[in-house]
Write a structure and sequence with these properties.
This protein is of the alpha+beta class. It is about 35% helix and about 30% strand. The protein has 14 helices and 26 strands. It has helices spanning about 10-20, 40-60, 70-75, 80-85, 125-135, 180-200, 245-250, 275-285, 310-330, 345-355, 365-370, 390-415, 425-435, 445-455, and strands spanning about 25-30, 35, 60-65, 70, 90-95, 95-100, 105-110, 115-120, 145-155, 165-175, 205-210, 220-230, 235-245, 255, 265, 265-275, 300-305, 335, 360-365, 370-375, 385, 420, 435-440, 460-465, 470-475, 480-490. A hairpin with a 5-residue loop joins β20 and β21 (about 385). The chain binds one RNA strand through α1, β13, β16, α8 and α10.
Length: about 500
RNA sequence: CGGGGCGUAGCGUAGUCCGGUUAUCGCGCCUGCUUUGGGAGCAGGAGGUCGCAAGUUCGAAUCUUGCCGCCCCGACCA
């Protein structure tokens, strides 16, 4: 019920936390900054993971796994990379505990100090490139296209469920190529994989773009990204793909002999998406009654709730539900029959709405007599009576329609919230009163970007791919500019 | 690390300013009966180191000091 979910206009953060907690996705944990992903939330992640994993394999990638721990010396090799991650690393210094000699409990055994500290990976570039050095000798070993599903740790000052946790689950692809062009094509291809996933599975429209130098990944020459818009008008980076040039190849000495028998450094990419996508999903689609999940990745697509008086009615309903279930399952629809007798129908309706299950079917004695079921869709809250004949096929098209409507709605909102601004006054007014992306001219310098950020808290989210070129003057400095870029306040 | 708020049963809370019987209420839980088309009703029941520690006092959830933890805002960031 809406009284239990904080209205988002009043306090968006509380609203978001309530959605995650009451939607059954995750909980706070005993460890500061970390969260427990509950079965329902994890099923959502697994579903997303499976779709992405298939896309990676369809584009020629293989999965592998690299160690959790990274020797400190590895991390210090690439200068920008250190700069970017040093401030947020968990460090392992010892390998043994001992009984506390001065009291109860255990203490770290000072004799077990590691000669070289190990860093819990904040990302795996360094350990992976150190490994690739041994795997790559010839142009015939290229391209090397590898992905890993893993957890990483970034010791952030402040955390938020799914959006920024100290430990998070993600996927990181790391590829090596013979030429720069090939590596760039790879980075662009993977960006498109992410964009396709966001739009067609998560029903989340995204802007494909490239980051400004200041917002680039630490150690990259170019960072491609997909940027999504949340319902509070803030932007969220939903995925990134980096063209790393030869930076890592050079510091880890990854070379290959080309067809002309000459030694060359390889060209690299890395790309990743994380459990943050779940945060994006929650903030993009939910309403005051709870989560709204797009059918294609909802762990549960349909829930069936029986309404009955007495065992006799229940039996008849059970029989009919079994038919419906088997139809739906045959069509590949994820369906649950909730006939638990400790909660009444109204309670279940509210519960599954909070969890964002796209379609609910209620079946009672009255419906059986009329050969119908009550079908309710989560996205629009519409309810209608539907014939039991051909119900399976009907639900299939309904799920498709919900998927499409959710995307259309999010896209309409997003499109309405890309607004051009031509003066700083306009820019700031739009940020404060409307939010969303603001399309404005920028002189291309990091100094200007920094000044705008200090003054407005807005950053350049991206320079859209295939951005129309347009002569203009920088919104802050008045210097000439050739194109508009997208600014926003962001998560 | 700065600013704000908070910590009382599984969850949410009243009581704290101004110390005083057996710590309040709701949800949930257990038992029984009645119920079931939008978070059921009645009756009975179980459940508490009032975040931790020290202090003041005849007496502390309440006052003092110290510590711990959480949430929100800021800096940092997927």
């Amino acid at each position: 019920m809406s009284k239990e979910i904080t209205a988002r206009s009043e306090d968006y953060s509380q609203w978001y936390n309530d959605l995650v907690l009451k939607g059954g996705l995750a909980d706070y944990s005993a460890v500061r900054g970390c969260m427990v992903i509950k079965p329902y939330g994890f099923a959502l992640w697994e579903g997303m993971r499976d779709v992405l994993d298939k896309k990676f394999k369809d584009t020629g990638h293989q999965n592998a796994y690299f160690p959790l721990f990274i020797p400190k010396s590895f991390l210090s090799k690439e200068e920008d990379h250190v700069e970017g991650f040093a401030k947020e690393c968990a460090v392992v210094t010892h390998h043994r505990l001992m009984k506390n000699p001065d009291g109860p409990g255990v203490v770290v055994d000072p004799a077990a100090k590691l000669e070289e500290e190990l860093i819990v990976r904040p990302t795996s570039e360094t350990i992976i490139w150190n490994t690739y050095k041994d795997w790559i000798k010839s142009y015939r070993d290229l391209p090397l296209l590898i992905n890993q599903w893993a957890n990483v740790v970034r010791w952030e000052m402040r955390t938020r469920l799914f959006l920024r946790t100290a430990e998070f689950l993600w996927q990181e692809g790391h590829t090596a190529h013979a030429t720069a062009d090939e590596a760039i094509a790879e980075a662009e291809q993977m960006l498109e994989v992410y964009a396709d996933f966001a739009e067609n599975y998560m029903a989340l429209p995204v802007v494909r773009g490239v980051k400004s130098p200041a917002e680039r990944f630490a150690g990259a020459l170019d960072t491609y990204c997909i940027e999504a818009l949340m319902q509070d008008g803030k932007a969220l980076q939903a995925g990134t793909s980096h063209f790393l040039g030869q930076n890592f190849a050079k510091v880890f000495d990854v070379t290959f002999t080309n067809k002309e028998n000459k030694l060359e450094h390889v060209w690299a990419t890395s790309w990743g998406v994380s459990t943050r996508l779940i945060g994006a999903l929650v903030m993009a689609h939910s309403d005051d009654d709870g989560l709204v999940l797009p059918p294609r990745i909802a762990p549960l697509q349909v829930v069936i709730v029986p309404i009955y008086k007495g065992a006799e009615q229940k039996e008849k309903i059970d029989a009919k539900v079994n038919e419906i279930m088997s139809d739906l399952k045959k069509a590949g629809i994820r369906v649950k029959y909730d006939d638990a007798d400790n909660n009444r129908p109204g309670w279940k309706f509210a519960e599954y709405e909070m969890k964002g299950v796209p379609v609910r079917i209620a079946l009672g004695a009255r419906d059986l007599e009329n050969n119908v079921a009550e079908v309710a869709r989560r996205d629009s809250k519409e309810k209608f009576s539907q014939s039991l004949d051909g119900l399976g096929a009907y639900i299939g098209t309904l799920l498709d329609d919900i998927q499409q409507q959710m995307y259309n709605k999010a896209k309409a909102y997003r499109d309405e919230h890309i607004t051009p601004a031509n003066t700083m006054e306009e820019f700031e007014k739009l940020l404060d009163e409307k939010g969303g992306f603001i399309s404005a001219h920028w002189d291309g310098t990091t100094e200007t970007e920094e000044k705008i950020k200090e003054r407005t808290k807005a950053t350049i989210r991206c320079i859209p791919l295939n951005n129309p070129q347009e002569a203009g003057t920088c919104i802050l400095t008045g210097k000439p500019s050739t194109q508009r870029v997208l600014f926003a306040r962001a998560y």
